[in-house]
Amino acid sequence: MTSAAPDHEQQAFPPNAEFTATAHAGPELQAAADADRLGFWAAQAERLDWATPWTEVLDWSEAPFAKWFVGGELNVAYNCVDRHVLAGNGDRVAIHFEGEPGDTRSLTYNDLLAEVSRAANTFTELGLVAGDRVAIYMPMIPEAIVTMLACARLGLTHSVVFAGFSATALRSRIDDAEAKLLVTVDGQWRRGAAAPLKASADEATSGAASIEHVLVVQRTGIDVEWTEGRDLWWHDTVEQASPEHEAQPFDAEHPLFILYTSGTTGKPKGIIHTSGGYLTQASYTHHNVFDHKAGEDVYWCTADIGWVTGHTYIVYGPLSNGVTQVVYEGTPNSPTQHRHFEIIEKYGVSIYYTAPTLIRTFMKWGREIPDAHDLSSIRLLGSVGEPINPEAWRWYRDVIGAGKAPIVDTWWQTETGAIMISPLPGITATKPGSAMAPLPGISAKIVDDEARPLGPGGNGYLVLDQPWPAMLRGIWGDPQRYRETYWSRYEDQGWYFAGDGARYDEDGDLWVLGRVDDVMNVSGHRISTSEVESALVSHHTVAEAAVVGAADETTGQGIVAFVILRENVENTGDALIKDLREHVAVEISPIAKPRQITVVPELPKTRSGKIMRRLLRDVAEGRELGDTSTLVDPAVFDAIRGK
Ligand code: WT7
C-alpha cells in the first residue's frame, strides 16, 4: 500500500461562511443519523413520491441480501420526471445537450416526459414486460437517458454497456443478462469523425439468442447494415408513438438496473441495483453533497452513462431533484482544449463533477486555457473515481474554483450505488486528497486483517459495517459470488469488504489509498488484471501473460503487461506489440490497451505457481526489487530487466 502525502494532511480548508449560510446540509443531519439511523433513512425516503408506503425501513434478516423500504411501491421515472411537471416545473430545462459537432438541444421536463412516454409506449408495443432486460449501447445523447428512464418507467431492468466497449464485451453482457432489446445508434461522434457503433452491435447480436429487436437512433447518418424484422429506427417508432403514458408503481425492491464491473477474476460481475433504496440515497446525496438548488444551479457531471457515476449522478440523483444539467457528448479536447471551459461559460455551470485524471490532464494543458474563460459561475467542485493527489486538488480549487469553491472528494463504488464518504460542503473542513468522513447515515471503518478497528494514524482495509439503502442487492445470476467477493473476508463480523486500502490521519480523517486486490484503476475505470491477461493469452502468439497496474502521472495507473510467447512464434518486435495491444482493444475495449507490453522469457513465480505481481510492479515502476526470497528462480529478473 502506498501512503498518502502526510505533509498535506494538516492543512485543512475551513468551509467559507458565505457558502455555509445557504448550504442544504447542517449539523442536524449527522445528529439525526446518530440518534436513529433507520429513522434518518426513512426521513430521506420522504424526498420521493411513493404510491404505497413501506411497512419496514430495513429487512436484514437474510443478510447479506437486503430489503429496504419493505412493501413500499414507487415509480422511479415518475419521481425523476412526472412529479416535476405536476409541481408546475414542466418548463424548466432538464437537459442542455451539447453535441460534439456543436449541435445543441434543450429538453424541458415537459419534453422529457413526452419523450420518455413515447419510448415507453414503443417498448410496450415491442412486447416487453416488467422484469425483462434491455441492453443500452449508446453515446452521451439525450436518447440514452430517455431510454434508461423509459425502462425504469416500465419496470424493465436496463444494462448499460459503455459505448467504448468492444462487440465481444457487449455480447457477453447481453448473454449474461439475456437482454431482449438492444438500443444503440448508427454511429457516434468522436474527435470530429463519425465512428460506427451499429456495426459492433451487429457483431455482438449475431446469433445472440435472447435479442428480439435492435432499436437504432440515427445520430451520425452513416451507412448501417439492416436486419429486417429485427432492426427498427428510433425515428420510425419512438418518435411516432403517443406522448401519453401512465406510470405504474413497482415494488421498492424491483430491479432497476444491472451494471457490469470488473472483479478480480476474468468475468465481469453484473451488479444489481433496485429501486426505492437506490433512489433515496441517490437523491439524498445529490442534494446534500452537491448542495444542489433546483431552479438555480446548472449542474454538470462529466461522466458517461456507461459507468455508475452516469447512472447515479447524471440520471437518477439529479433528475429526482429536478436538476438543470449539461450533457456533453464528446471528448474534452474536441475541437480544442477549451471545450469544457467554453461549456461552463456558455451555460453558467455552477456545480462541476469530474475525475482526477481529467483534472491532471487540464493541469498538463496549462492554466492559460481555463484562465481564458469566465468560470465565475462555479460554486462547487466534485471529484470521483480514484484518490485525488493534493497537487491536483489545489489546482482544481485555485484555477477552476477561483480559490474558494469547496471540493467534495466523493468515495463510492459501482456496488455502493451512491456516494458513501465525502465532505459535506459548508460543514466539513476539507484537506487536499482526503475524502474525510462517511456521510450521515453511512457507517464505515478502517480495520486490520484480524478485523480490529483502527484509530487515528491507523492504516488498513476499508469496510462498511452497516447496510445502506443504495447497496447492491447481489450479482446477476451468481449469489454465491456475491457472498464470496464482498462478505467472506469479514464473515464473522458481517462487514462489506470494499477492496480498498485506507488510513486515518492523526485527526481521524479518512484517506482512501486505492485497491488492494488485482483490480487496476486507469483514468477512474476499473479493469481487472486477469481480464487483460485472458485477452492477451487468447492471442495465438501468447503462451502466458502477467499484467500489473503501474503508477502513471495522468491516468493514475497504467497497464503494464509481461508476456511469454508460444514456442515457434517469431518475435516481430513493434509489429507484434501493436498486434497485441489491438487485440486487447477488440477483446475488451481501447481503454484496456496496455501502456507497455514486454516480451519476456519467463515470469517470476512462487513455488506454488503464483505470479509475483508485486515484483513485476517494482519492475514496471522502475524500483528496486522487493523481497524475492519466495521465488523459484530469482534470476528470472535478470532476463526481464535485460529487455
Ligand atoms: C473504485 C470503485 C464511484 C464511481 C466511479 C468508480 C476508487 C472511487 C474514489 C475516491 C479514492 C476512489 C476506489 C473504488 N474510487 N472514488 N474519491 N477516492 N478512490 O466506480 O468503477 O466501481 O470503482 O474506485 O478504488 O473501490 P468503480
UniProtKB/TrEMBL annotation:
GO cellular component terms, semicolon-separated: cytosol
Catalytic activity: acetate + ATP + CoA = acetyl-CoA + AMP + diphosphate
Needed co-factor(s): Mg(2+)
Domain AMP-binding enzyme C-terminal: from-to ranges: 531-610
Chain positions recorded as Mg(2+) binding sites: 537, 539, 542
Post-translational modification, as annotated: Acetylated. Deacetylation by the SIR2-homolog deacetylase activates the enzyme.
Keyword presence, Nucleotide-binding: yes
Domain Acetyl-coenzyme A synthetase N-terminal per the UniProt entry, residue ranges: 29-80
PANTHER family: ACETYL-COENZYME A SYNTHETASE, ACETYL-COENZYME A SYNTHETASE 1
Database matches in HAMAP family: Ac_CoA_synth
Function field: Catalyzes the conversion of acetate into acetyl-CoA (AcCoA), an essential intermediate at the junction of anabolic and catabolic pathways. AcsA undergoes a two-step reaction. In the first half reaction, AcsA combines acetate with ATP to form acetyl-adenylate (AcAMP) intermediate. In the second half reaction, it can then transfer the acetyl group from AcAMP to the sulfhydryl group of CoA, forming the product AcCoA.
Family of this protein: Belongs to the ATP-dependent AMP-binding enzyme family.
The protein's name: Acetyl-coenzyme A synthetase
Organism, scientific name: Rhodococcus coprophilus
Highest classification ranks of the organism: Bacteria, Bacillati, Actinomycetota, Actinomycetes, Mycobacteriales
